[in-house]
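Quick one from the shared queue. A colleague (R.T.) flagged Kinesin-like protein as missing a structural entry in our internal table.

Convert sequence to structure tokens.
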Amino acid sequence: MNKEPGEDNVKVAIRCRPLLPESNEKAMAIQFDENNQSIIVGSREFTFDTIFRPEATQIQVYAQSAKHIVDSVLHGYNGTVFAYGQTGTGKTYTSAGILSHSFAHIFGFIAASARDTQFLVRASYYEIYNEEIRDLLNKNSKTLELKESAQSGVYVKDLSCFVINNVNELEKLLEKGNKQRAVASTNVNKDSSRSHTVFTIAIEQIKTAPSEGRGPGNLRVGKLNLVDLAGSERQSKTGTQGDRLKEAAKINLSLTSLSLVIAALTDPKATHIPYRNSKLTRLLSDSLGGNSKTLLIACIGPDKSNIEETISTLRFASTAKHIKNKARINEDAKDTLLRRFQEQILELRKQLEATEAENIENGQPEPEIDVEKKPANPELLEKLKCLEEKIMVGGENLLEKAELQEKLLIESEAELEARKKKEDELKIALEKKQAEMIQIEEFYGTLQEEVVGINKKLKKVFNYLCSAKSELSDIQSEYSKLREDLLDTIRATHKEIKLANLIISQFIPESCFEMIQESAKYNELVGEWQLKCIAYTGNNMHDKPFHHEQKENFVEDDFTAKAYLSYRK
């Protein structure tokens, strides 16, 4: 099947963590075939773009998988890196390594760029906890809302965003956000993430002179999303109870929504993609089947005790690699911070020039060139300096301690290129030998040899049949477990509904309840029921005191008056 222009499949990499010291198992339950980039679990074999053995380092993982995504972002594309897998398989550890090396990569690119290119880098960090969006860079943040516009698509309203000038500032933001992230201890992982997090880096760049066919002032905006998904988990293994159990239900529900979206995207007969089933899939709709270059890193464990979860993760990743995205360069974006800063700088310079011209007309001497000793307008100069500091120019040294990381990345890339070349040569030689063996097997000297050859082929076909039956059984078992998880969620929801109905029947009069029902409206953007005119009730009206003597003028029926007055007390 031919690809359309700009069409590219989601890249999938698998990373296996080492056996844990506290594990009683001494041998891994999975095998690696690095020549074919495949993982073998029992009789099943899964092939991916890249696989990483337990001994793989952070820089190797970045160089072989995430680097090409960051490269694309630096040239104006949207890019997304997902970390997916069972809880306790090293997703957060992998995400941390990718974040650290991407920081060095971004500012290394800026430092190596021509001086006629200006850059502006900004970052945000938020989590989706119990289907609520929280800003991790704002301690006083309340639950944030999802909004949608024709120009910006789906975005988070009132999310804080910081302009960044170097690697250290990015690392401080990441550290600040991680301290506020929701984590808790379970039987599987003592530091289990209880939320999905999204760290976003937007890179705006503009050339100040015509180059390579691009006109003066052409602007490109690349956006990198680094998504650390909360781990899928089974209550029987994690031993979660109370709040942890509710969190697990929400996590599994959003991951199920993600699975349904991926299943729909890879099904040619699907007519609807259920992006709106969860806030996670809605926010990242561009990353799955849209305008983005996407990488999924699936993390697995080698333990025999977790073999079911490992197969489930590998099957999920195997489905995801068939998703097709249509990425395009985000060029000449209108509403960008860099363009607004440039306009403000130009306006401030005009104001300074006007101030100097006015001084000359009034007979005052022309200001000295040394502005620090004798500033013409201190306030304007301070604003101008502040804005210019936020804009970086290509060719400046911005790496500081990240220079070492960039050097290691280059060395690692060269080593990997040499290793890949050698692997390709060995693979070609192996395929040649296999072809020769097949030809030799086809020449049968006697009827008995022919029978032996046919039996071998029958045995291979029988093995394929057994493997297919086993695969079908696993899929049925997985869907059965998925159905059980959904039923558990439905049962928990029914309990909450019964509790709500009990509270309503005991504490809210029937006439008032009917009034509430008439005023309620479902908001699809937020995913919640909302009441009309709620801003004019309760504590919002506290500033206007109500006196008992106003009773007759304020209400018409005695029942509502008593209810209102008892509420005020």
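The longest strand covers residues 117-129.
The chain is about 45% helix and 20% strand.
Added to the table.
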